[in-house]
Each structure stands twice: as structure tokens, then as C-alpha cells.
Amino acid sequence: MSEAAVQNVKTSKPAAKSGLMRRIVKNRAIYLMILPGLIYFVIFKYIPMGGLVIAFQDYKPYLGMTGSPWVGFKHFERLFAEPMFFTILKNTLVLFLLNLLIYFPVPILLALMLNEVRLNAYKRFVQTLIYIPHFMSWVIIVAITFVMLSVDRGIINEIFAMLGYEKINFLMSSGWFRPLYILQVIWREAGWGTIIYLAAMAAIDPQLYEAARMDGANRFRQIWHITLPSIRSVIVVLLILKIGDVLELGFEHVYLLLNSMNREVAEIFDTFVYTAGLKQGQYSFSTAVGFFKSFVGLILVVLANWLAKKVGEEGIF
Predict the structure, then answer these.
(1) Which of 75, 76, 51 lies closest to 64, judged by CA?
(2) Rounded to the nearest 5°, which phi and psi values hold at 314?
(3) Strand partners of residue 57
(4) Which family is annotated (predicted)?
(5) What contacts 88, CB < 8 A, 6 or more positions away?
(6) Residue 245 is inside which H or E element, if any?
(7) For the segment 79-126, what is each residue's pLDDT rounded down to a tens digit?
(8) Do residues 96 and 245 share a domain?
């Protein structure tokens, strides 16, 4: 390389740094808006990742991470040899598939229906009505379900009794656990999930609909050929993120529905980690279970993103 070229490389680095600083200063308001979220992820997501090392140790609180003996993959081997492992894996995958196949399309359908409402006052009223459950905790959602479905004075069972039918113990039945779970997820989250889809639909050029109407397309054809293709990239991105949560179903919701009568179909990795880690003090083993969950989610996100790019979508990275 010539002396002039070397000099150009040396001078370009400070110029690039100064250009970066100028952009940061110019857009400082945007970076300040990002800062709280960045601090949150650093403190609560990245720093705790250092604790994953105890999955490879026989961790003792009084010895700490530096003093606890290393045991390699002992806890992972124990996890795969656990008699309950395949039952827990099956339960987790079944609930995930219910979320993916039943819940995931519901916000899209709700958004499509709301997008077709032309009376703004009515549209805002319906949106507010379906958003409200999202702001209630799972404790309240499950408590309402308990009040409605309990055998003793539950409104649903009282109606069954008045009609001459036998009362059903919904909350203690293993057969009713999964339907109750997915219905509660839809009730609480479907309305909130429409926000992103409605925002994507708002960005669609109205002239496309005008041209379609001039060509004689009805409302259904407009949705099929204009609305859905226009929000396809958003659907794909959210689907990839959903697939990444394959083993992350939410501890609180399942734990509140869990009891001794439905444990066979209700026990999932989240509740298993709680039982093994907090109740029984098996910190290293429960960390290994959490590590396994995260690793599977990472692999599935990468695969889903790769498939999305193969079919022509942008993906998330």
C-alpha cells in the first residue's frame, strides 16, 4: 500500500468518528428516548446472563459462583433423564401450538374487522372495550374464571343445573385445562395484539382501494388482495418472534390454573423451574432447564428468520 493510501486510511478514521458523534448530537432526542429501554435490557436481560454459569456448577449459595464446584453437563443430563421431561415437553409444545394456531390469527382477524368499521366513534368504543382485559393481571383473569365456572355457585354451572344438566368441574378437569387456557389468552391479549396490525393497515395507500373498487372488487377481495399482502411483512415478523417463545408460555397464568388434578397436562417448563428452583432449592438444575428453554427458542428464531428470507420476506435480522 502506498504512503498516500495509508495516510488516507488514518485520516478517514477520525473523520468517521466525528461524523458519528455529529449524528448522535443531532439526533440526541431520539437516543435519549432509547436510553431507558436500553438500560432496562442491560440490567434485567444481559447482566443476569452471567448467572447462567451455575447451570454447569453444583451451586451453593454460601460458596457463590466463584467457589462452587464445576460439574459440566451433569444437570443437563439429569434433565433429559428426568421421568417428567417428555411429559413437560409435550405439554409445553401443545400449549404453544394452541397459541400459534388458534390465538395468533385472532388479532389479525379482529384488526381486519375493525379496519372495515367506518363509524369512528363506534370503532374507538370497540377498541377500548377489547383493550381493557390486557391491563388486568392473570390473577384477576383466573379469579373471574373461577367465579364463573366453579361448581359451587358458578354462573355457568348454575345455568346447567337450571336446564337439567349435570354440573361440570371445569377447574379440576384435565380435559378442560387447555380450552380454558387458550380462551383466557384470547380474551386478555387478542385486543391488544390488534394495535400493530391496525398501525400497519393505516399506512396502506387509500388509492389502492379506490382502484380496486373501480375494477369491481368487493370488500372481501380488497382485504384479500390489498390489505393482507400489505401487512404480510408485519405478520411474518410477529410470527418469528412468536416462534421464539415456543417454550415461554408465561409462568403466572399456568401456575394459577395448575392443581393436583390437571398437573399431568398442565405442568410446563416454567412451573417445573419454579418447583425445582425456588421450592426445592435446586438452583443449578433449574438454571439448566431455563438455559435449555432459551437455547431452543434461539435456534427456532434463527430458523424461522432464515425461512422467512428464503420466501422473500425481510425477517428480523
Answers:
(1) 51
(2) -80, -35
(3) 70
(4) Belongs to the binding-protein-dependent transport system permease family.
(5) 267, 268, 269, 272
(6) none
(7) 888 888 899 989 988 998 999 999 999 999 999 999 988 888 898 999
(8) yes
**Model confidence over 144-186: pLDDT tens digits?**
999 899 888 888 988 988 888 888 888 888 889 999 999 999 9
DSSP state of 70: B
Residues whose CB is less than 8 angstroms from the CB of residue 25 and which lie 6 or more positions away in sequence, other chains included? none
101 plus 35 within the same structural domain:
no
Give residue 132's pLDDT band: very low, low, confident or very high (50, 70, 90): very high
Rounded to whole angstroms, the Cα distance separating 238 from 206 reads 24
245 exposed, middle or buried (CB, 10 Å; 0-12, 13-18, 19+)?
middle
Residues 6+ apart with CB under 8 A from 251: 270, 271, 273, 274
Comparing C-alpha atoms, which of 53, 49, 48 is closest to residue 67? Answer: 53
Q: Same domain, yes or no, for 51 and 142?
A: no
SS3 210: helix
Domain that holds residue 1: 1-56
Q: What is the CATH number of the domain that holds 130?
A: 1.10.3720.10
Looking at the structure, do residues 253 and 120 belong to the same domain, yes or no? yes
CA–CA separation, 51 vs 47, rounded Å? 8
Q: How many CB atoms lie within 10 A of CB 306?
A: 11
> Quick one: CA torsion of 79, 83, 87, 88, rounded to 10 degrees?
-30
Whether the Cβ atoms of residue 113 and residue 203 lie closer than 8 Å to each other: no
This prediction has a pTM of 0.82
Dist. CA 18–CA 242, nearest whole Å = 40
